[in-house]
Structure formats: C-alpha cells, structure tokens
Write a structure and sequence with these properties.
Layout lengths: L2 H20 L2 H28 L6 H15 L13 H23 L4 H21 L10 E2 L14 H22 L3 H11 L1 H6 L4 H27 L1 E2 L6 H14 L5 H20 L2 H18 L3 H24 L1
Antiparallel strand pairs: 1-2
Helix pairs in contact: 1-6, 2-6, 2-9, 2-10, 2-11, 3-4, 3-5, 3-9, 4-9, 6-9, 7-9, 10-11, 11-12
Membrane topology: Multi-pass membrane protein
Keywords: Cell membrane, Membrane, Transmembrane, Transmembrane helix
Protein name: Branched-chain amino acid ABC transporter permease
C-alpha cells in the first residue's frame, strides 16, 4: 500500500477502536459487530474473486462447516454433544475443518471457471444446507444447535457487547492484513498471473491446479473464522443460517462494496447491515428483499466495481480539478 493508504487505514482503525466511546451497545454488536463478522465471510469471497478470478458461492457453506463444528464440540451446546471440548480447542478445530473443506471444494472446482464454477459451488452450498436439515444425530435437523455462547475472555462473557465488538474488530483486521500480505507473496503474484493467463503461467512451470486449491483453502480459513464468530453472534446455528438466502447475502455484500479491493467486503457488509436493520423495520421482508435488490442493481449498473469504485472516481475527479487549478495559477 502507498503511504496515503497506510495513513487512511490507520485512521479507520483508530476510529473503529474509539467507537465504544461514541456509540451505544446496540450499534456496537447489532450493527458494527455484525457487519464485521459477516464481512469476514464476504472477504473470503472477495479474495477469491479479486486475486484468483473465481466467484465462489460456497463461502457461506464453509462458514457453516466451522459454525457446526464449533457448535457440535461446544461444552454449552443444546442439545449436548457426546464429544464436547473447551471452546479454546473447539475454535481452532472448527477453523481447520473449514480450511480442509475449502481445499476439497478447490479440488472439485479446480478445472472449471465462470458459470460452471458458480453452479458447482452453489450446488455444494445448497447440498450442505439440505444435509444439515435432514441430519438429526449431528446437526439436530431444522432446529440446529443453540446456546453457543463462546468462551470467556478475561473473565468476561464473549457475548458482552464490548468483548464481541473488539474481538470481531481484531480478527477482521488481522484477516484483512493477511490477505494484503498473501497477495504480495510469490504465491499471491502467481495466483494473479493464473487469473489473467493460466496457460502462460502453466507454460512457465507453475502448478496451476495446486495454486487454485491453495487459494480455496485460504478462503476456507477466512470463512471459517467468520463462521465461528457468526455462530457466537447468533448464539447457535441452524440450516437456514447457511442456506440460499445467506449465500446470496454474502455475494451481495461483496459486490456492493466492490470486488476490486479486500476492504470492499467490509464496506458492503456495513451497507447491507444498515439496510437490513432499519429498512426491514419499515417494510415487510418481501419488500425488503425488493429494496436490497434495487440497491444492488443500481450500484452494479452505476459502478460495476461497487461503492469503492464510486469513491475512487469521485476522489480522482477532485484530484484532477485540484491539479488543473494549480496549473492555472502557474
């Protein structure tokens, strides 16, 4: 990143850290905290789309793999599982499960692109949701698993507004920095080369399939982190929370924010959460879906690269006018 981008990032982080002093608890957990945890799942999709050229609709499924894993292993789960462990062990196991699942999806989808990849990942996502609905022994069917309250941190319940917000913020920031780091490594640069011209990269001796599988595994790791936090936020998990609606919502967040940069996932998540929270209280759910669809359509038509693209063009226009003004003075 440039010096200006680093300064802007530091400013945003400072503002986010100060939010508990400025906003009530509802905004901390119900708006910002929720946007952060869903933004993490959207970040996994943005990572694949921006740097790998893959639009995957399986990211909510991967979040669900982590969510169900931590729920099944949680010591407070209702119904109680027979293999419960502490939250501090359940959380990394859940993330590992999502990472492995991401690699498996990459292995399945590695030789497809565009609409075929979209349909394969959508079929996997819907299939997992339906499997969770029909499985009683492990997933408790339609009712899902509840009372997943998360661990205590410094003797404070995880569901405390302040704890949940800061943990979500720290995890989101670390994963954001992880993506920025990965895309600048030799692996990340090769992945971007594969996105642009896979045949040329293969001719240079790189294993294209292995890089794609690794990218899906990294995206699975990111989605898994988000899935664990979402399960704690919802105090449980059900098949509907990882179904078709949730899958489309994550895609909408990514596209609204902008697929050109990882931060777009969080911008889109904040916009979506604000609309979902406040517009849904004014309109019924069917009208809300129409509203979010219209917002999605307007942004895509006006700016295919999302809200970030609109911001860049406005900033670029102001910068050009400033330069023209300086040139006129000279």
């Amino acid at each position: 990143m440039t010096r200006t981008q680093w300064m802007l990032t530091a400013l945003v982080v400072a503002i986010m850290l100060a939010m508990p002093l400025l906003l009530p608890d509802f905004w901390l957990s119900g708006i910002l905290g929720r946007a952060l945890v869903y933004g993490i799942v959207a970040l996994s999709l943005t990572f694949l789309a921006t740097y790998g050229g893959f639009i995957s609709l399986a990211q909510t499924m991967l979040a669900g793999v982590a969510g169900y894993t931590v729920a099944i292993l949680a010591p407070t789960a209702i119904p109680a599982g027979s293999n419960s462990v502490s939250y501090w062990l359940a959380m990394p196991l859940a993330i590992v499960a999502a990472t492995i699942a991401g690699g498996v999806i990459g292995l399945i989808a590695v030789r497809t692109r565009d609409i075929y990849l979209l349909m394969i990942t959508l079929a996997l996502a819907v299939g997992f949701s339906l499997f969770a609905q029909s499985n009683i022994d492990w997933f408790n069917g339609y009712e899902g698993i509840r009372n997943i309250v998360g661990p205590e941190i410094f003797s404070l319940p995880f569901r405390t507004h302040l704890v949940f917000y800061y943990v979500s913020l720290i995890v989101a920031a670390l994963l954001y920095l992880l993506v920025l780091y990965v895309v600048r490594t030799p692996f990340g640069l090769t992945l971007q080369g594969i996105r642009d011209n896979p045949r040329r990269v293969a001719a240079l001796g790189f294993n294209v399939a292995l890089h794609r599988i690794a990218a899906f595994a990294i995206a699975g790791f990111i989605a898994g982190c988000g899935g664990v936090l979402i399960t704690f936020y919802n105090i449980g998990i059900t098949p509907s929370s990882i179904g078709m609606t949730a899958t489309v919502n994550v895609l909408v967040m990514s596209v609204i924010g902008g697929l050109g940069h990882p931060v777009g996932a969080f911008v889109g998540a904040i916009i979506f959460t604000l609309i979902d929270t406040f517009a849904a209280t004014i309109y019924d759910r069917d009208r809300f879906n129409t509203l979010i669809g219209l917002v999605f359509l307007v942004i895509v038509v006006a700016s295919p690269d999302g809200v970030l693209g609109i911001g860049k063009r406005l900033f670029g226009a102001r910068k050009s006018k400033a330069k023209e003004g300086q040139a006129a003075l000279h």
